Amino acid sequence: MNTSVKIAGVEFKNPVTTASGTFGSGMEYSQFVDLSRLGAVTTKGVALTPWQGNPTIRVTEVYGGMLNAIGLQNPGIDVFCERDIPFLKKYDTKIIVNVCGKTVEEYVGVVEKLSEQPVDMLEINVSCPNVKEGAIAFGQDAKALENITREIKKVAKQPVIMKLSPNVTKIADMARAAEAAGADAISLINTITGMKIDINRKTFVLANKTGGMSGPAIKPVAVRMVYECAQAVKIPIIGMGGISCAEDAIEFILAGATMVAVGAANFTNPFATVEVIDGIEDYMKRQNVADINELIGAVR
Amino acid sequence: MQICEEAKLIECNELSTGIFEMYIKTKVASLAKPGQFVMVYPKDSATILPRPISICEVSDGELRLVYRVQGKGTREFSLYKEGETVKILGPLGNGFPVEAAKGKKAILIGGGIGVPPVLELAKALKGEDVTILAGYRNSDLFLDEDFKKQATLEIATEDGSVGVKGNVMDVIREKNLKCDVIYACGPMPMLRAIKKYAEENGVTAYISLEERMACGVGACLGCVCKTTKKDSHSYVNNARVCTEGPVFEASEVEI
Prior knowledge:
The structure holds two protein chains of two kinds. By secondary structure, chain A is α/β, with parallel strands linked by helices. Helices cover 32% and strands 20% of the residues of chain A. Chain A is globular and about 55 Å long. Chain B contains five helices and 16 strands. Chain B folds into three domains: 3-92, Elongation Factor Tu (Ef-tu), domain 3 (Beta Barrel); 96-208, Nucleotide-binding domain of ferredoxin-NADP reductase (FNR) module (Rossmann fold, 3-Layer(aba) Sandwich); 210-255, Dihydroorotate dehydrogenase, electron transfer subunit (Dihydroorotate dehydrogenase B (pyrk subunit), domain 3). Chain B is α/β, with parallel strands linked by helices. Chain B has helices at 72-78, 117-124, 144-148, 168-174, 188-201; strands at residues 3-16, 19-25, 37-41, 51-59, 62-68, 85-92, 105-111, 129-136, 152-157, 164-165, 181-185, 204-208, 224-227, 238-240, 247-249, 253-254. Chains A and B meet through strand 5, strand 6 and helix 8 of A and loops of B.
């Protein structure tokens, strides 16, 4: 039975990674999960300099999901290269570094610093809904997305994944823009912008007013968007949004995702990633699937 | 080391109006220290985040958790019966620095649902010069009998039905209590008042903070608080309450 998949020449032992921001750089979860079992670890977004993030309250639960407005707190690329990459290199897994910035120059700066680092792929966060500058501004306009993709591709030494926002009218247009500008892959969906109001305090629950919704409740939206993008582009897709078990992951793969990411489910169950991997294998046995690649985009 | 496991409920009771306790047989107990907490995972799949609950007492491989029914998750917990299992993760956080009270005069302060973790701390400080100060809304007290077995107990109630009328700071003033070190857990206005009192009186105060959490293990960066020193994760003066906390020296946090 083969569970390995390939994206832009990088081979992953299985199609399961982590959704950026839900798993840190793996350190905190390494006592529950053998990181070497994962196809890849996708890190929390890293910027050129340390970012403070938003004021609290930053997270809140909603029915079947949660809202977050962390605001990309991170220690910056220098600490990340000294601390997080060497940590991840101890494991037999691929490393996907999520990159964020406020300007094209900042993204490019991080990508340049990563060019000599032993990481396997870069995921460009042009879809975080919780920061005022950068991020989603590049992901909601096809021209801006094309432009930043091109600039990053000029300097990137590793394959580039553009992470798309669902907060757009037609996500397939964004997928096409990323492909046209040379992206090696796309990942989707980032969180869906939401809001929760505290009816007793008569104010917003989150200090940021809005937050990105994730969790099982967003899965049908994510599967539909992965399907639409898979019909629109030829580059591989990493699918995510509400995956909490193998059955969820297989839906994404059948809809056209080459890989899948487990996100908020890590909070509900620290063992979620390995349970998804084991469950995919069980499903393949039950269904007599010899190679996971047979499943990718099998539903048209 | 932290453990995530399905653990067995030994006993569940309502202690006072809306205040419940559960005794859980778990490997987490042998690792737990005063002031640490556990995550308890609701079974309802629409409730995706675990609930952080402080450790009230540790004994014989059992944890005693005392919590207030606050929302969906804790309402579910309150319906659990002995013999059922519950998924928990812990012990989490740093806990109270017990050694800081050795040979000193200490006041242990709990306010509202911040009262429970004071019990295990009082047990750990048995034999030291300790006064417990507990603040409640009204005569619906809980854990007061347990406290009396450990140390001198002073009570404040908002309506004055038991002890001093007012809050825990009113007790300190009225009874002219003196100390070298304070340990406290409770609502933010109380913690702010303690931080101010500690600064003005040259007392060291360790306060246990509460913040909305998602992962509980330091990965999501949801539950930060402003610190005067650079935090050890992002170096941006935003420490993780679940990991670097929940207990901070009051002078090191901006609350």
